[in-house]
Specification:
- The protein has one domain: Alpha-Beta Complex (Fumarylacetoacetate hydrolase, domain 2), CATH 3.90.850.
- Helices cover 15% and strands 36% of the residues.
- A hairpin with a 2-residue loop joins strand 2 and strand 3.
- The chain starts with a strand and ends with a strand.
């Protein structure tokens, strides 16, 4: 099932996306609000009012209480960088103000000359969970979405802490919708082809089966630290092919088109726009 936050002329609505022309209102203002209802799995199956498809997708969850990101989490990427496989996930945070919709412009801040792409599988939490067992972690997964962790490298590497390069406002597309695990090969541990293109040039390609720490491991680890709540987002990390690793480094410029795809989850299509 595909669920999303859809912009209409009267505001946002949480919807079930049945096909390109069939979008059904589920009676909540956004997906995060729907997921906070403990009965959301039943609500999404009910008939609803069909909406006009004239609109756009907002961030799948517009106002998550937490966006937690994972660094260095693809085996091939770690190996090509000559690093040892990590024994624990590398975690950092992103603020909700960074999130944009599936076709919104990526705001290129005038303060940075180092904008870079990072295609990622995103986990969306569907129920509160703390110190989760493997079974509880799987049950807490509402679904999966696509995220591109657009990063200002010059700000990221000003210090050893990454947050300042990861949280520039209106830079991180999330969407277009959330797909529930039952529709994906591998379910809660999906094996999906992921790619990122810049101006029609393929720059990243991998399969999410190459993750060192999969969704269940990440939820168990993070929920040891803090309660994960409905609508929280976990960005699971990016594979090789980022611009900063090229020689010389390559960064995004005004007018560049970034397309991020994950098998079964759709695509993000975003133009870089000078802020």
């Amino acid at each position: 099932m595909k669920l999303a936050t859809f912009r209409t002329h009267t505001g946002t609505r949480c919807v079930r996306v049945e096909d390109a022309d069939t979008i059904v209102d589920l009676g909540a203002p956004d997906l995060g609000v729907l997921l906070a209802d403990g009965n959301w799995r039943q609500r999404v199956k009910l008939p609803g009012t069909q909406l006009s498809s004239e609109g756009s997708f907002a961030p799948a969850v517009p106002h998550p209480s937490k966006v937690i990101c994972v660094g260095l989490n693809y085996r091939h990427h770690i190996a090509e960088m000559g690093r040892a496989m990590p024994t624990h996930p590398t975690l950092f945070a992103k603020f909700a103000e960074a999130l944009i919709g599936a076709t919104d412009p990526i705001a290129l801040p005038p303060e940075s000359a180092g904008a870079d792409w990072e295609a990622e599988l995103a986990i969306i939490i569907g129920k509160p969970v703390r110190r989760a067992s493997a079974g509880e972690a799987a049950d807490a997964i509402a679904g999966f979405s696509i995220l591109n962790d657009i990063t200002m490298r010059d700000w990221q590497y000003r210090t050893t802490q990454w947050l300042q390069g990861k949280s520039f406002e209106a830079t991180t597309p999330l969407g277009p919708f959330m797909v529930t695990p039952d529709e994906l090969p591998g379910g809660c541990e999906p094996a999906l082809q992921l790619s990122c293109s810049v101006n029609n040039e393929r720059v990243q390609e991998a399969n999410t089966a190459d993750l060192v720490f999969g969704p269940i491991d990440l939820i168990r680890y993070i929920s040891t630290i803090v309660t994960l709540k409905p609508g929280d987002v976990i960005a699971t990390g990016t594979p090789g092919g980022v611009g900063h690793a090229e020689d010389p480094p390559r960064h995004l410029n005004h007018g560049d088109v970034v397309v991020t795809k994950i098998e079964g989850l759709g695509e993000l299509w975003n133009v870089v726009q000078a802020a």
